[in-house]
Amino acid sequence: MSELYELIPYLVLSITALVSTISVYLAIIEKDLIKAVLYSAIQSTFYALIFYLLMVPDIVLVYIPVSVGLLPAILIIAVKKTEKYEDVTGISKTTSTIILTLVVIFTLISGYLLLLSHAITFAIFPSTDVRTLARWFLNTTLWWNRMFSAMSPESVTAIVWDYRGLDTYFETSVMYLAIIGALALARYIEIPKKVFKEEAMGMSIIGKMATRIMVPMILIVAVSIALHGHLTPGGGFQGGVTAAVTVSLLIFIFSVYFAARFFKINTAILLRIIGLTGIILAATITLIIGFLTGQQAYIFQNQPKVIAQIGLPYEIGGNLISGTLLIFNTSEFLAVVMGFAILFLLLSIPEENVMEVIRGEVE
Amino acid sequence: MSPIDFVLTVIGYILIGIGAFCQIVAGMGMNRFPNFFVRLHAATIAAIGGSFVPIIGCSLLALSFEELGDVRFFLAGGGFVAAVFLLILAPVGSHLLAKAAYFSKAAVLQPKVVDALEEDIRKGEVHE
């Protein structure tokens, strides 16, 4: 009997999903635009119900006023100001019936599969245990007991680089492989050697002057985001992306020939490899120390654990550095800046040069 | 509350009010102006009058709010720096947009009263 009771949310979920799909379809095929807006509002209402069932009441609180109240109101005002009817020839009736049938069948099948896949465990909704785990992470990222702590007040960085370090390592590798792929595609293509002329190239002098003022400031902010990654929101990736903005500014405001003065692709690859080496070193530094001193240690170990007593110092002279987290953030910053610099430079090579190289290879 | 703080608070609220007014004016301008270039003018009103001025106001408010302790200096400093950035960058962005739209002929200049740039180009004083 309790199992039947637990099934009710799933039934409501599938019915709401079906109704919202149908109202989306009606909103698409409706010629009267006011009615279409109303259908879309109905769909939003059912979405809000789905969100509520999936236990995100905070999103429901935002979703209902915006998408049921505000958005239709704005759309209705816009429709009033323009034309009330859509004058494009729409879908014919038989096609629409076929599409509607397919949509309904698809929704039923996928809903049934969802029901079936969760009927075994009845665990679609987040259990309260997850919140205990989150509370544990939040309370112990900076704690008096180093055995159970990452010694960093920023729990996101602590989770990303300490508790779940291997995940982040593989994410970094994915980006590394993507850039290797881009370099392999462009292996004979080079930035053409041209002298940068201040007057003839790039945007106007106002834009250039503002960029000259802004670029050092952006770099300062980026380095600060990266170096404070273990203290405040942010980290190596965020700081790196911020710094990569300067490269794209140099390319678009000045010229690719101006940017190529500062960023040679080969130098960028070298610096990126240095960054990645730093990441690998930070991941294995406790293991190396443990190997040299004959003690037990793990990869991605930051602070001493119960059966592995080696750990990096979490502060130097009273400044919190959180062990490996600072090394991780700095290295990731270098790797991400240089990765994006390579991508931007490759993307901004003129098409004629690329075509020349391709033709040369074919002939 | 000391007299200086009171004055700062009042100035801050006035600046935020000016900002709200400028945003409304800019919105009306975006809706009603006939072509791209004057609409860009309205957008710049929103950036300078509607963002730069109220950020200065917020910084003054933070500066005068003594309950925050020393944090209020950080807040106000951040606000001033952000406002100066906006003051430098928003006009540059508008200028570059207008220039690009003019020379690429993406925006139709209609209705046109006077076009000094076109006359200069015809005389040969300005090159694309």
The tally of domains of chain B stands at 1
Main structural class of chain A: mainly alpha
Mean pLDDT of chain B: 89
Helix content of chain A: over 70%
Structure summary, number of beta strands of chain B: 0
Q: What integer value in Å does the Rg of chain B equal? A: 20 Å
Query: How many separate helices of chain B?
Result: 4
Mean pLDDT of chain A: 83
User: Which H/E pattern describes the elements of chain B?
Assistant: HHHH
Number of domain units of chain A: 2
Low-confidence sequence ranges of chain B: none
Overall body shape of chain B: elongated
Quaternary state reads heterodimer
Distance between termini of chain B?
Answer: 58 Å
Helix-strand category of chain B: mainly alpha
The number of helices of chain A is 13
Describe the main β-sheet of chain A briefly: 2 strands, antiparallel
Q: Globular, elongated, flat, extended or rod-shaped: what is the shape of chain A?
A: extended
Percentage of residues in strands of chain A = under 5%
- Of all protein chain pairs, which has the greatest interface, and how many residues does each chain bring to it? A-B, 8 and 8 residues
Radius of gyration of chain A: 28 Å
